[in-house]
Amino acid sequence: MRFILLSLFLVLFLTIILFVFLVLHINFILLNLFLVAFLIILLVLLSATWPPDSPWSPQWRTDYKTAQAIIKLGKIGKASVVYDLGCGDGEVLIAAAKLGAKGVGIEIDPLRFFISKIRAKKNGVSDHLRFIKGSFHDYDISDANVVIVYLIPKTLNRLLPKFEKELKKGTKIISYRYEMKLKPAKIDKKNRLYMYVA
After folding, report:
1. CA 20 to 30 Å from 153, out of 43, 55, 180, 193?
2. What is the pLDDT at residue 56?
3. In 17-170, at which residue ranges do the beta strands (DSSP E only) sit?
4. Which residues contact residue 30 at a Cβ distance below 8 angstroms, ignoring those fewer than 6 apart?
């Protein structure tokens, strides 16, 4: 419902602004600049409010507290090689790298990819982390001994064959919020974390 109301508000707002531009005969270049800025704002707002049952991954970030809970559940440390599929702004990888872990974040969204690289550099851990802009379906994850996912169930279940094919025995898979069609090795109910072992 919130998504529909926001969309209707934005369409109404755009219509009013276009009407004002046309009535006042404002410069065509200014109109184009406004439309580009409006589309960027619209995309950011829509990505933040996209329905949780969409065919894509959730657009909400993993907060610091949850990142710490993931690290604790997965016993992530210096020997860990962490892959975060759909890493967003890199919160979990940055927290892991501060403990000496190596990490790879794969993110398809160019804005979040860019933000994750900047945040890693700002936190002084960019030498421990590598970020890839692209789909995690296209990259080999066999180096991982911990895989982090914050994806909807439909996407998680499509990843199962990839996990079976590429992950070494004993690799930990930690899913935030959503369960997979596997038997969990551990569950952190308070933080909604599910850990599976390949």
Report:
1. 43
2. 53
3. 81-85, 102-107, 129-133, 146-149
4. 21
- Containing structural domain, residue 125: 64-197
The CATH number of whichever domain residue 177 belongs to comes to 3.40.50.150
Quick one: 38 and 75 in the same domain?
no
Please indicate, yes or no, whether residues 68 and 154 belong to a single structural domain of this protein: yes
Q: Based on the domain organization, do 159 and 183 belong to the same domain? A: yes
pTM above threshold 0.85 = no
Question: Whole-angstrom Cα distance, residue 136 to residue 106?
Answer: 6
Mean pLDDT by 10 residues, the chain (198 residues): 61 69 64 72 61 54 94 97 95 97 92 92 97 94 97 90 97 96 95 96
- CA pair distance 83, 181, nearest whole angstrom: 20
Residue whose entry in the numeric block shows the structure tokens 């926001």: 6
Question: Is 159 in contact with 86 (CB distance < 8 Å)?
Answer: no
Contact 83, 101 (CB under 8 A): no
